[in-house]
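FORM 12-B: Structure-to-Sequence Request
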């Protein structure tokens, strides 16, 4: 059992504007945040988790201003954020997932940035709703990149990204400008 499994279904929303900071945290096992509600900024900067981090059905709420969730410099085995709602900006900068990352059925309500991230296997984005500007810049996916049924409502960029295997885009919608080259 994970050291942080007690956070399962914990509701941070009762603490108005309370920022959650896991910067520099190290866990040899896994971190379970299933159905957790965050309200305010959430930071996992330079956090290291040996096995996986699970944010399935989590909600990242904004308070009075636009909030951010940041996973900058975070390293973990697998990363799961399925069926989640992110109301603020999301940043994954210089992040590495040695196994896979799964964002399926998640809604990113504002800007999301995947910059200089490394994924050791597949990146799953089945039916993800990207409402704000979306950047996959200098992203390296060692396995398949699956965007099946995802919707991009603003400008989308894949500049400098490397996908080592197949890219799947069936039923994917790009509403605005798409930039896939340098």
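FORM 12-B RESPONSE
SEQUENCE OUT:
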């Amino acid at each position: 059992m994970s050291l942080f499994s007690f956070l399962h279904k914990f509701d941070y929303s009762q603490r108005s504007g309370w920022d959650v900071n896991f910067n520099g945290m190290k866990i040899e096992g896994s971190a379970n945040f299933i159905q957790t509600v965050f309200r305010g900024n959430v930071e996992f900067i330079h956090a290291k988790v040996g096995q996986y981090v699970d944010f399935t059905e989590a909600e990242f709420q904004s308070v009075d201003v636009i909030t951010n969730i940041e996973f900058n410099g975070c390293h973990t085995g697998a990363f799961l954020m399925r069926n989640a709602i992110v109301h603020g900006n999301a940043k994954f900068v210089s992040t590495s997932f040695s196994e896979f990352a799964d964002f399926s059925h998640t809604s990113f309500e504002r800007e999301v940035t995947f910059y200089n991230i490394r994924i050791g296997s597949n990146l799953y984005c089945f039916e993800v709703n990207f409402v704000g500007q979306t950047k996959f810049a200098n992203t390296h996916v060692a396995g398949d990149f699956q965007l099946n049924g995802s919707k991009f409502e603003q400008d989308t960029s894949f500049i400098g990204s490397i996908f080592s295997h197949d890219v799947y885009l069936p039923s994917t919608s790009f509403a605005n400008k798409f930039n896939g080259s340098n």
